[in-house]
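Input.
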Amino acid sequence: MKNYKQIYISALLLFFFGHSVLNSQNNTNDNGLTFKSPTYVASAIFNWPQLNADSYGYNNLDFFLTVEKEAPNFYWAHQFSFVNGKSAYMGLQTTASFKGEQTKIAIFSIWDSKGVESAANGFSEAFGHEGSGYSCRIKYNWQEGRKYRVRVWELEKAVAPETGTWWGSWVMDMETEKEEFIGKILVPKSWQRLAPVSYNFTEYWGSQDGNRHPCSTVGYTYTVYDYPTMSNGAVKPTDAIFERNDECASLSKTGQIGPNKYQVEGW
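Output.
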């Protein structure tokens, strides 16, 4: 029993020491590394079971994350695409704009979409940066150390004279099981459903002035992601590929930490 206790204590010391060293690197030694915003810290690419020739795609995707340490101007997101259409993403942000204030939000966006309806307590808008489309967001005071699920579902078909399909997004606190609606977005019928590839990313979007900035000026974050699922949890990814941003790679790390779970840490 004593040996198990020693191993446990050693593991804890190694865990916290590793975090403190990486955090120290972020604050004191960037070796001249710079980046141009917006940029990502790390990403994970997920491949899914291939669709049958007569399939229209998946009608649901669930994204799970636990932000253990947050920092300003970050976006923790999952990006997906449609079988015959464009891309979309959903997730959580810090210091985002919401009705004139800077706050935490949950957000859902689709490129080249045709219409949008916001939640009763949220708002929606057209966007024109990095492409164009519609976005929904709600003020959402998510907390460090809590696990959240952000999901998208195919909803009802659009009513004539419009043609297309509505897709809705929700966010849930997995501890309280309280779920909130983010909004819904209309896409062309020809897009069909969700394609069998998607990915998570951790993005820094501050300092968008066109200049390069030291990597050490970005706040330190640590996030645990559970693997996403489709078809209400029935379908899981066939594999995952982890990547770090080359520009600031020495200040970050990512990789699997358990079955269907991985971490992103750094900057």
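The CA atoms of residues 19 and 175 lie 25 Å apart.
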